[in-house]
Structures are given as C-alpha cells and as structure tokens.
Design a protein that fits this description.
The chain is of the alpha+beta class. The chain folds into two domains: 2-38; 46-142, no CATH class. It is built from six helices and seven strands. The strands form three sheets. Strands 4-1-5 form a three-stranded antiparallel β-sheet, with no helix packed on it. Helix 2 (64-71) runs antiparallel to helix 3 (76-86). The longest helix is centred in the C-terminal third of the chain and has 19 residues, at 95-113. It starts with a strand and ends with a helix. 15% of the residues are buried.
C-alpha cells in the first residue's frame, strides 16, 4: 500500500523525510499512525454520457470503442457519432479498412459457422463495433 510520510521517521537504512511516498504493509501503516497517511489508489477509469449525449471520461480507457458501444446500444445514431468523434479507427480514412475486415469476418462466420449471411454480418458487426455503421454501408452498396 502506498503512503505519504507526514513526519520523518528512522529506519535501518536511514531517516525517511516528510513528503516522501513509500510502499508499506497495512500492518506497518497502523504502527506508523500519525507519521504516515495512506494514499488511496486512483479511481478506476470510467466513462458516462451527459444528458445532452456528450461523452465524458475519467482516466485512460483501454477499449473506448467497446465502452461507447455499451453506453449507446439503444441509440445507434449517437453511437456512430461518438465512435467517429472519439475513436480514430472510425474516421472516414479508416472506416474502409474496418468494412473490409467486417466483410471478411462475416464470410468466415457464414461459411465456417453455418450462419445465414444476415446473421453473420450482424455478429461480425457487433464484434467490430460496427452496428451503428451498417446503414451507411448498406447505402454505399446500393449506390445511395
């Protein structure tokens, strides 16, 4: 556990000055009560939507796309907007690569998994966080 030294104290290796952050066991924290203060661990990363649909985050989120998809599962237009705004791989320059990957994954699911083409496309889109973009893809296929 991490602790902040409030009052200098001696150890076998010398004096630990005030202001230093040290690693100690919980038992030692109790013994040094008044000389050190536990430092709470940083809050876990989190993300949420405001009432106006803006994405807010705290900390570093490893898979922001998955978090956005989870927050917006019932609002695909907002999901598409937030993915495009906050996740580099969903910008217009990279979406083509994702669509190719989606088509490839859907084909494998259809052929190897025995799914219908529609089910394979939907499952592949879910895995790649592309459900919100399927309408755009359908329009591109039909030439609209």
């Amino acid at each position: 556990m991490r602790a902040l030294v409030i009052e200098p104290f001696p150890t076998t290796k010398g004096i630990i000055p005030a202001g230093q952050i040290i690693e100690i066991s919980p038992a030692l924290l109790e013994k040094l009560n008044g000389k050190v203060e536990a430092i709470s661990s940083p809050q876990a990363p989190e993300a949420w939507l405001t009432e106006t649909g803006e994405l807010r985050t705290r900390g570093v989120i490893d898979d922001l796309a998955a978090v956005i998809v989870g927050l917006t599962a019932d609002n695909l237009p907002l999901q598409r907007e937030l993915l495009a705004r906050h996740c580099e791989e969903y910008d217009r320059h990279h979406i083509g690569r994702l669509w190719d990957l989606w088509e490839e994954r859907a084909a494998v699911m259809e052929h190897d998994g025995g799914l219908s083409r529609h089910d394979a496309e939907c499952r592949a889109a879910e895995r790649l966080h592309l459900l919100a973009f399927l309408v755009i893809r359908a329009d591109a296929r039909s030439g609209n």
